[in-house]
Amino acid sequence: MNDIIERLDFDEKNINVLHAEHIVRYSLAIPYVRGKKVLDLACGTGYGSFFLSLHSQEIIGVDISPEAIQSARKKYQRNNLSFVVSDAMSTPFQDHSFDVIVSFETIEHIKNDLTFLKEVKRILKQEGLLLLSCPNIVWSKKHDIHNPFHFREYTEKSILRLVSSYFKFSSISSQYDVGGSLILHDKLHPSTMINLSHNKHTFPKIPTSYIVLCSDNEKIEIQDLISLARHETVDDILNLIDYIKQLKLILLKEDSKILTLFKIKLGRALKKSKKLVSFLSK
C-alpha cells in the first residue's frame, strides 16, 4: 500500500457529504453482516467497524496504521469488537475465518490488487461474502481529479473482470453524490426515481464509485440506499425550507380538494337518504 494513507477522520457531530458517502456503504452492509463473523479490512479509524458491531455477531477491524488502530481502540469499544494492526495483503488470520469481509475504499490503494483479492479469498469462508467499493475512473477523469494516494481506479467492467478472477458471482451498484450519497443498482436510472429540481440540482449522470458484492454460492443483488448529509450552507437551508413550504401548499390544496369531494358525496348521500325516507313513509 502507499506509505502515506488517505484516511477519513470521522466526527459524528459534523457530518458532511464525504462522511455520508462512507456511512451509506456501511449502512448497506447491515443485512449481510447481521449475526455474522465480520472483518472490516482497512478499517481506518474504526467508525465503520463500530457501526457494524451493533449488528454482527463479531467484528474485527484491521488497518496497517498503528495510530489509526490505537485511536479506534480508544474511541470504539464493544464486547464483540476488536482491532488489529496488519497489512491487508498478509493478515494473521487462519484460512476461512470470516463469514463476511467488508473493504471500502481499499483496493485502489493497493499496488497488486489480485494479491489483495487472493488474501481475501483465503480468509473468507467458502460460503462467505465480500463487499467492496472502488472509485470510478470515468468520474475522476471528467472532473480532472488525480488522487496521489491511488495506484489505479476502475471502470464498471474492469472491477467486475477483476473480482471474477476469484469469485463466481458478483453484483454491482453505482454510488452517486447528491448532497448526500445514494447507492443504486445500475438497472435503475436515478433520474427516473428522484427529482432534485427543488434544490437547484440535476442528478449526476456518472457515479463517483462502485459497490461490488462477491460470492461463490449465488448472485445476490445489492440493495438501493440513500444517506443524507447535513446542509452546511445558508442556500441549502433556504432551498430546503422553500421545498417544505411547497409541499405544505400542495398538501393543503389536496386536503381542500378531498374535503370538497367529501362534501359533494355526503350531500348526494343525504339527498338520497331523504328521498328514501320520504318514499318509505308514504
What are the secondary-structure elements, in order, as H or E? HEHEHEEHEHHEEEEH
Stretches where pLDDT is under 50 for at least 5 consecutive residues are 1-7, 12-18, 189-201, 228-241
Work out the number of β strands: 9
| Strand order, largest beta sheet | 3-2-1-4-5-8-6-7-9
Radius of gyration, rounded? 25 Å
SS strand fraction: 15-25%
Helix count equals 7
Q: Kindly state the mean pLDDT as a whole number?
A: 79
Main β-sheet description = 9 strands, mixed
Structural class, from secondary structure content?
A: alpha/beta
**Which overall shape is indicated by the principal axes computed on the Cα atoms?**
globular
What is the terminal-to-terminal distance? 96 Å
Range of helix content? 25-40%
Question: How would you characterize this protein structure?
Answer:
A nine-stranded mixed beta sheet has the order 3-2-1-4-5-8-6-7-9, with helices on both faces. Helix 1 runs parallel beside helix 2. It is globular, with a radius of gyration of 25 Å. It has seven helices and nine strands; from the N terminus they run H-E-H-E-H-E-E-H-E-H-H-E-E-E-E-H. The model is unreliable at 1-7, 12-18, 189-201 and 228-241 (pLDDT under 50). By secondary structure, it is of the alpha/beta class.
